[in-house]
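hey so i finally got around to running the thing on that chain from the lab meeting. sorry it took forever, my laptop kept dying and i had to restart like 3 times. anyway pasting the input first so we r on the same page abt which one it is
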Amino acid sequence: MRSLLMTFVLLALGACASFESGDLPNLDRWPPQALAAARPALRVEVNGLPKKFAGGWVQQAVKTCEASERFASVTTETSAAADRVARFDIEHSRPDGLPVARVWMGVTALTLGVIPARSYQRFVVHAHFLDANGHVLGTAERTVESQTWVGWVMLFALPFAGAGMGGLIDDTTRSILVEANDNGWL
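ok and heres what got predicted. didnt touch it at all, straight out
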């Protein structure tokens, strides 16, 4: 009975903390100031991500574009007419390798979270802004990294954790939109 209680306590103290880092200038200038009175319709396209990330990335990028208040409408429909297209071509990699991450997650599970595990991911985002005719107006690139730690000691790291994958996508999209606005691509 005592070991069951101890197992429950260890599992209850388990947590996951994500930290982001990368090349994200311009975050202090959000939302971007309109350079022109016109608010174009925007279509967002996201390519290159595994299905695990693609849906969330698209949804978060659309929310961020809408929150900028720079666009009359934001859509992901390829058949919809748009004045501008923001195409995000994303390269996703795991520098530590997926097998290594899975082994450490297994060790964490076997030790009930006493030995923490880390998952490390890198996203290289190539954002291309196009006009209604498909001509490239400009390109921005950002590299962001996410480290996620899992284990019961992570409970104490939660106050210092980042906003997770949603925050990483939001910050990356914001940084790119500010650059695009500054260069007149919107």
